[in-house]
Structures are given as structure tokens and as C-alpha cells.
Amino acid sequence: MLIMHDSGLKDSYPLRDGASFEKNAGSYNITLTDIQDGHVTAHVLDTKCFR
């Protein structure tokens, strides 16, 4: 999972099955949930911040 911050910096976050956390990337709050088979569901207020 790659998050691009407002500053242009990129952070990578590995997610395990069932793992969930919230990340504030710049002015956006992001909730990432990896629920099954390595498929990731992402809830993002502005998708420009998410890849």
C-alpha cells in the first residue's frame, strides 16, 4: 500500500489479512483495511492521495 502525502513524500505500509489502521496523510484521513486474499479495501476522503 503506497500513500502519497501532500508534501510529495511516499510511505509504504504492508498490511496483513485482517489488519486495519487509520493514517493521516497530510490533510487527508485514510482508513486501510486488508480483509481477505490480499485484497485491500481503502476508504479515502480524496483519492488523489491514494495509489
How are the SSEs ordered, and which strands pair?
Layout: E1 2-4, E2 10-12, E3 20-25, E4 28-36, E5 39-44
Antiparallel strand pairs: 1-2, 3-4, 4-5
Question: In words, what does this structure look like?
Answer:
8% of the residues are buried. This protein has no helices and five strands. It has one domain. Helix content is 0%, strand content 53%. The model has no long low-confidence stretch (mean pLDDT 57). The chain has strands at residues 2-4, 10-12, 20-25, 28-36, 39-44. It is flat and about 20 Å long.
Residue fraction in strands: over 45%
Principal-axes shape call: flat
Main-sheet strand order equals 3-4-5
Number of helices: 0
How would you summarize what this structure contains?
With 51 residues, this protein is mostly beta strands. It has no helices and 5 strands.
List key phrases describing it:
single chain; 51 residues; mainly beta; 3-stranded antiparallel beta sheet; two-stranded antiparallel sheet; 5 strands; 0% helix; flat
